[in-house]
Amino acid sequence: DGGITQSPKYLFRKEGQNVTLSCEQNLNHDAMYWYRQDPGQGLRLIYYSQIVNDFQKGDIAEGYSVSREKKESFPLTVTSAQKNPTAFYLCASSIAQTNQPQHFGDGTRLSIL
Amino acid sequence: AQKITQTQPGMFVQEKEAVTLDCTYDTSDPSYGLFWYKQPSSGEMIFLIYQGSYDQQNATEGRYSLNFQKARKSANLVISASQLGDSAMYFCAMRASGNTPLVFGKGTRLSVIA
Known about the structure:
Number of strands of chain B: 12
Largest interface: A-B, 30 and 27 residues
Low-confidence stretches of chain B: none
Structural class of chain B: mainly beta
Helix content of chain A: under 10%
Low-confidence stretches of chain A: none
Oligomer: heterodimer
Mean pLDDT of chain B: 95
Number of helices of chain A: 0
Strand content of chain A: over 45%
Distance between the termini of chain B: 41 Å
Radius of gyration of chain B: 14 Å
Radius of gyration of chain A: 13 Å
Largest sheet of chain B: 6 strands, mixed
Shape of chain B: globular
């Protein structure tokens, strides 16, 4: 079955710690995206990548970093510089056409210890 | 830049009734796509329906239809014959071109009452 796998489902971070959220897709999509969702809020774009070895900042990139070394993988690191990391993180991918929807993973819920 | 506005934080509907969820958008691009997603309490995002800016007819997918009024820049989602399983957050989103990211509204929480 083709799809997007995010892991872990739940993650806890200690003060001053960096944590990495995994996102893998086997849909052969060129573009991948990371969104953050706070309770009762919409999705805000953190980073996106349209091609391997290239990525762009979204609206709330501060305190986050990404890499795109393989087409299938787009990990997100939440650094210690992100002072309010508690949120639901969603990874998505899509074909590079206007009329194609983004496909989403099941999300990772990150909390502060 | 694109912007999506969903003005209804929450909506209630009786089971088997129809409901309309509002969405207005703003963009200067002549070519764009509009999307609706459903997010149940479990968190996954489920794609429901798509409307292109040049589509002549309103999109329909089963019980979902999109009331597209281009001059008013609105793309309202209509759910017919509501079911208890329709209770969820609903997000309107748009993309101006190619593989640029979707821009999302803040969502509407729909509650279906038996």
